[in-house]
Amino acid sequence: KMCGVTQTNWESDEPIKKASQLNFHPHQRYNHYNYVELIIVADYKMVTRNNGNLDEIRTKIYEIVNNVNVICRYLYIRIALVAIEIWSNGDLINVESAANVTLDSFGTWREKDLLKRKSHDNAQLLTAIDFNGLTIGIAYVASMCDPKRSVGVVQDYSLSSFVLAVIMAHEMGHNLGMDHDTGSCSCGGYSCIMSPGMSHQPSKLFSDCSYIQYWVFIMKQKPQCILNEPLRTDIVSPPVCGNELLEMGEECDCGSPRNCRNPCCDATTCKLHPWVECESGECCGQCRFIKAGNVCRPQRSECDIAESCTGQSAQCPTDDFHKNGQPCLSNYGYCYNGNCPIMHHQCYALFGSGAIVAQDGCFKFNDRGDKFFYCRKENVIITPCAQEDVKCGRLFCHTKKSECDFDYSVDPDYGMVDHGTKCEEGKVCNSNRQCVDVTTAY
């Protein structure tokens, strides 16, 4: 049996680089888990095959997801089942024996219907139809997080939930940037997950090629949807202690007792040990509150105040700073929300170390009120600067290129003088880009 893979416009490196050629240490490939919030849809043929027993279908789906989680754990991916949809009254798309046509229809339906009803990262259609030829699954490659293409279709080809989990993991592997394994790929002597065909003894291991292709996809495509950990209240599958996914009724889940590395968690019960005061936080160390007085948020500028642990909480106290308007940087500026904004630093940020603040005459352009020089821009309405406010509009810097250099973008605030910046002695730019007395500005 085969997988009918559908390519996207994205291509991984060719030829596949060896691990030694990539810019990461083998033991530092993954510094956190990724989470795929999954919806599985069962078509009407699944309902008729199971004689209308929807509980039986749900149980089968739970078993599939549990096995997919076991397979994907080595990629540091957690699969969170956030919904099951069973088409018990008839299919909502035309499920055809042509697998590629069904995949396209399912992707379109997901984008136009399912995504609007329930937030999720990936959807898989579980169908009892017999696809043409030897195909038992199909998916788009490198499509995770795409509204239409983050989908796969899996044929209910076997009575074994593990076999179906291997097929689903294979199709999700495609979504995560993996191609079919070639003869040079290995996972320890077995047929690997991304093998183009299903063997009689399906493996639960991804090959070395798959690991590298997945990492290249993550680095190049940067799929944002899989970065957030799902809320335990969103997970619909029964909790499984030891799957490293925090679910309803669990206080923690650090994997099996053998693999658990969390000293706060009892891996046999997925509960915190009775003596635990905290599990995480800036003021939590070895499951206990850090002693009072230890700095948890250092001072970032002379306008900021360092915060220290209280000894009674795992969280660092609220970020506090000196009063707005207090002089800073030897009276070159005034404090504003914990920082000391001055034009010289802003010129450095825009143009580099050689840039300095331009002469006052350059700032007079801001009274024009055109698309570059203004004080305020709301939608299509442009407000020129009053004469006394010109140093609160567009920032001008003296650079090698020009004595009145400036920068801009589609963002109306980019290249403008920052709020709270000193515009005259005793005056600052307020949020309306007016140069006002510092004693009344805040």
UniProtKB/TrEMBL annotation:
GO terms for biological process: proteolysis. GO terms for cellular component: extracellular region; plasma membrane. It is found in: Secreted. It comes from the Eukaryota. The active site is at E171. Pfam families: ADAM_CR, Disintegrin, Reprolysin. PANTHER family: ADAM A DISINTEGRIN AND METALLOPROTEASE DOMAIN (PTHR11905), DISINTEGRIN AND METALLOPROTEINASE DOMAIN-CONTAINING PROTEIN 28 (PTHR11905:SF32). This is MP_III2 SVMP. Its cofactor is Zn(2+).
